[in-house]
Design a protein that fits this description.
Elements (H helix, E strand, L loop, with lengths): L4 E4 L5 E4 L2 H9 L8 E4 L6 E2 L4 H9 L7 H5 L5 H4 L5 H12 L5 H22 L6 H31 L11
Antiparallel strand pairs: 1-2, 1-3, 3-4
Helix pairs in contact: 1-2, 5-6, 5-7, 6-7
């Protein structure tokens, strides 16, 4: 005896078929899913396809759904583009560069930002998924500008002070 199956589609429509093979084909094509309601002729209640023994095996043979490569690589939701946590050097270069505007302390922070920014770009070249190119460049440019700038101002200041020191005269003995 051939059973008659009635399925309730996701569109709210009822679909009938006499072929269990047709339903298995729909499972493989992912046109129906585990929780698709089915009423088998002679049964009192609706059931889910996964609960019907003849279809349960078809779900086990079904390959897992394949996500496109673009969504697989963005598992962090794009957060790494905003905060490059996979490239700590770039993040540090950025913050050191920002805080290099502070006089005197800016020399150290700016030079660190400059070096870390270059290091972050090399790291990103080897690991493109690490991100952080913009943060690294901000560290290089801002850190370099203020780091070398504060260094130049500080050196100029000391040279000016030394140049304006009164000259010591040796004691003249007669």
């Amino acid at each position: 005896m051939i059973a008659k199956y009635k399925l309730l589609g996701s569109d709210g429509q009822e679909y009938e078929t006499n072929s269990a093979e047709q339903i298995k084909q729909w499972i493989m094509e992912e046109r129906v899913e585990r929780k698709t309601p089915v009423l088998i002729e002679g049964a009192k209640d609706w059931n889910f396809l996964e609960m019907v023994p003849e279809f349960a095996e078809a779900f086990q043979q079904q390959p897992p759904p394949v996500r496109p490569a673009a969504t697989q690589s963005k598992s962090d939701g794009g957060l790494n583009a905003v905060i490059p946590y996979k490239n700590v050097r770039a993040l540090l270069a950025y913050y050191f560069g920002v805080f290099s505007v502070i006089p005197l302390l800016g020399i150290l922070l700016g030079l660190l930002a400059f070096v870390l920014g270059i290091s972050a770009l090399y790291f990103r070249r080897k690991n493109p998924a690490a991100g952080g190119a913009v943060h690294a460049w901000i560290g290089i440019l801002v850190g370099g500008f203020f780091g070398f700038g504060w260094l130049a101002v500080t050196l100029w200041f000391f040279v000016t002070i030394v140049a304006h020191q009164p000259q010591a005269h040796p004691l003249i003995s007669h």
